[in-house]
């Protein structure tokens, strides 16, 4: 029972408590909370969520979920809605410059003609930095065309030197093979065993021999939900188990601060495919 209660979304719990207190002692408060909850239902903007995130609550990462999403998860529809209703710096995973990913990529010592794929790229700034560093063969994959179009617009003429793929990763097929597979914040959204197995199978099939895998996902100390979805947390041991046939180079946890100041703990893992 305690475990179940602890998994309840903090913003909804706080709203419910305030509504109850308002009904008992101060009805104007109840009216305000009811209006706030109604507004959240219409706009997907939860004021209580934002307030709690300011105080460091980690399990309130865009957690307003529509009834339709609770019934059937449509990845394409979900992520298009996220990118159509939120600016770049209004999503929790935003980074002005993805320094950790760039440092890990630099440590691989790949040459500038190496083939790199960024999974779930969205409108991340990673591609900007890679182009500036001189990398020539970059593929960006995301289920949201809105997200990729944002990145295209930002890059201007440089976008012509990038391969853009709009696809659900679980359905992605290509004859290309990559020297580096980069994923920041995609794997943890796959919660079904079949989808996780499919992810790992694609990594094994699409990476060249001795190719590198860099994955960043929520750690056991990170959020339990994000963007209205349940997620799967990982540890170094569970990452090693998932890619047991790869050479494990290193894993480490890192704190990410969201644009509104909330803390999220990620675990970065670096692997190399064996010959």
Number of domains: 2
CATH fold field value of the largest domain: Rossmann fold
| Count of alpha and pi helical runs | 11
CATH class of the largest domain: Alpha Beta
Helix content: 40-55%
Percent strand equals 15-25%
CATH superfamily of the largest domain, by name, is Vaccinia Virus protein VP39
| Radius of gyration from CA coordinates | 20 Å
* Overall pLDDT confidence: 85
Oligomer state equals single chain
Order of strands in the sheet with most strands:
3-2-1-4-5-9-8
Biggest β-sheet description:
7 strands, mixed
Structural class: alpha/beta
Order of helices and strands: HHHHHHHEHEHEEHEEEHEE
Number of strands: 9
Gap from first CA to last CA: 49 Å
Shape: globular
CATH architecture of the largest domain: 3-Layer(aba) Sandwich
Defining key terms:
275 residues; alpha/beta; Rossmann fold; 2 domains; seven-stranded mixed beta sheet; two-stranded antiparallel ribbon; 11 helices; 9 strands; disordered N terminus
